[in-house]
Amino acid sequence: MPVAGAARYRHAMTEGDLVPDWLRLNRANWDDRVGIHSASDFYDLSAFRAGASTLRSFERAEAGDVSGRRLLHLQCHMGQDTLSWARLGADTTGLDFSEPAIRTARTLAEDTRLSGRARFVVADVHEARTALQEQRFDIVYTGIGALVWLPDLDRWAQIVASLLNPGGFLYLVELHPFSDVLGEDGRAVEHDYFDTRGLHIDHPHTYTGGPALTHTRSVQWHHPLGEVLTALANAGLRLDFLHEHDVTLFQRFPVLEQRGDEFRFPEGHARVPLLYSLRATRPDT
Predict the structure, then answer these.
(1) In whole angstroms, what is the distance from residue 6 CA to residue 53 CA?
(2) Which is one Pfam family of this protein (predicted)?
(3) Which CATH superfamily is domain 7-281 in?
(4) Are 256 and 271 in contact, with CB atoms under 8 Å apart?
């Protein structure tokens, strides 16, 4: 899935207990977003059909040569990242809980003549093993803005480990949780880094702009970096690297400057991490 937009919509949040029907709310919210996203400049499906990649250069470098490798993309939304890996030669599978998103992904695969290298499955990430018939993969990839939609990272990490071949690895790229504690102007700490309670959000628009949503409610969770790393370690995965990046994909704070398809702090400005990436391997034994 793409950028969650949590920091941009802090003003719409109210703290509260975990909403019991969070999965239903989130699925309805994401189903509603698909038509808006597919028509947006943010996703620019026309450029993608013409050959554009949605992967950042550091992702291609950090993941290494994926040619001929079996890659699973969890929470793939409309499949552009999945198909970008397929363009690099991977045998890809994208999984997402939104049926409209998967329909769009399958159409994109046909339009880009990548259907031979990419298949798409409708399922919640927690049901991935059953939905994929106990298959295993060389690489499990999770892209930006995915983890905030998951309440239990220990459970998620165990699922990831179970989907990997021995010697295979998780490659994760995410919004850095430290940037979530800053206010909308990016100048001061306004939110509790260690507050991991479910946040109930009611906002009329998705992060791409466009028409109002019908299903406006969702639930998200903040996951400190230590929580992510500990969940992976508890699942038996070995951390190969953790890299923090001073770039992001959208105008998260007013001070950021756009350079190409990335947003950075201006020269001489104090920086905080905006993204992080990590690779964690399932040992051979």
Answers:
(1) 25
(2) Methyltransf_25
(3) Vaccinia Virus protein VP39 (3.40.50.150)
(4) no
